[in-house]
Amino acid sequence: MFKPLSVFIGLRYTRAKRRNHFISFISLSSVIGTALSVMLLITVLSVMNGFHKEVRERILGMASHATIAGFRGGLQDWRDAVEKVKQHPHVVGTAPYVEGQAMVMRKQQVSGIIFRGIDTSLEPQVSDVGEHMLEGSLTDLSAGSFHIILGRELAQLLNAHVGDKITLVTPQLSMTPTGTMPRLKRFTVSGIFEVGMGEYDRGVGLINIKDAARLMRLGNAVTGVRLKLDDLYLAPKVSRQLANQLPSIYLVSDWTRQHRNFFSALQSEKRMMFLLLFLIVLVAVFNIVSTLVMVVTDKQADIAILRTLGASPGMIMRIFIWQGALLGLFGTLIGVFCGVLLSLTIDDLVAWIERMFNVDFLDSSIYYISRLPSDLHWQDVGVIALSTFVITLLATLYPATRAAKTLPAEALRYE
Fold it and tell me: What is the b/e burial string over 300-322, where b = at least 16 CB atoms within 10 angstroms of the residue's CB?
């Protein structure tokens, strides 16, 4: 009794048992279609977020949140830069590094490689490569030992195992009695790591920072300093602040610049997937339009009687807007509930299906990520729910306007 009349009649049309069961079936299918489309959209975006998070963490496990390098090669006074950046409240770890490109050879196998000289005592502050060691340890990279740790795929390519000797060929030239020759150095494989990214497992080798500086003829200089922040998403802001604080001889960069193309491609992929899947929502909304059009046709006599009793066209329009809005709201809420529940349990659900049917959807020998990760973002859920409900409201305008234009005399002529 406290509801506006248009809301009361709209609710009654939604709950009433109609004479035309086909209309009831279409109404139910529109609600189910909206729920399924919303659930699918939330689940797929959550899985995509999960994969993106896995890739990002694996990249940043070997890369760094930010780096400080020199405009003209090596950094001589890198310790002064470290003391300054440590004062920033968001910097939680620093580590110098020496990096260069080379060719690595063992017997008949040759491959390009990026060798990175690290300080084994400071490297755990900026990367988690030590947690991904299959054999050996970072502490094996003692100064002067000329030991090297290889990625798993690179070690397989070279058929190299712990204790084997490999040859590193650098672009630096050495003068010999026979002429100019590239620099060659023998290294002993002391460990193998696997971070799950082919870029690193296939093309990176770790050596001691002093051995790398000697190989590159840098003396006491380094290539740069790697930084770890307490929040990786603050990297662009923090890097700008550090660039303003440090002298102009330093070049400050962050992970969003170093891997800009890759992460931009991931974001573009997510946006396109959202648009494609949202078309399913539009299909479900068209079902609501069809339902309301058939209800308007079925209720011509009711509409005419209401108009005769004094109902305005606006009131008739609101009745069917409320009915369509309720169908869309029920479908959206059910879809959000099921989508959130599925997103939070999909990893365990897929694992159960694999055990039950003895299948392996993501074979670990083929894929770097052998499980189905999910990262639910409530912001995505809100955008999906709100967009679906708004489109549902817009879809009710045509049938509601058509109902408002019903002429009572014409509708009751054959009743």
Answer: bebbbebbeeebeeebbbbbbbb
